[in-house]
Prior knowledge:
Layout: H1 13-36, H2 46-68, H3 76-79, H4 83-106, E1 113-119, E2 122-128, H5 130-156
Antiparallel strand pairs: 1-2
Amino acid sequence: MAGVPLQNTRTSRAASVLVGAVVALAGAGILALAVFGTPERFSSPRWVVACAGSAFLVFGGWTAALYARGYDASRPDDNLPSARIQLMVLIPGLLLFAAPFHWIAFGPGPREFSSMVSIPFVSVRQGSAVSTGRILFGAGALLIDAILVAAAIRLLRAPGRERKQN
Length: 166
């Protein structure tokens, strides 16, 4: 809307903790399904499902813990954990998140992809070429890898400021 000023819509700390906990619980559920689910429910290896669930568990838990400790997004340098602790969460979390993308794009075996276009009152679903699906998942995998490397370099090169050890 033109002329209407944007309001500050920051999420409360309690809401951020709740969202993080819900995401972590969803990840724990997916992980439990990967470990205890019946084999006929899987069209991919259990480890791929477990990696996806574990990524949600790690990042949801990180978000909940960070905000529960009093993280304030307006002052991140004052209240983020040390770069070392951030790396201890970031690297495994992103590796777990990237693993399914890598398996879909580069792993052995057949894959099935579909695409769907929806506009009001009309939905069209069709099969997609395997090469197109693998290429798109490969691009996603490489993007996650690039984010991982860039974030690790940035945290390892924390510019001269000492972060408090948490």
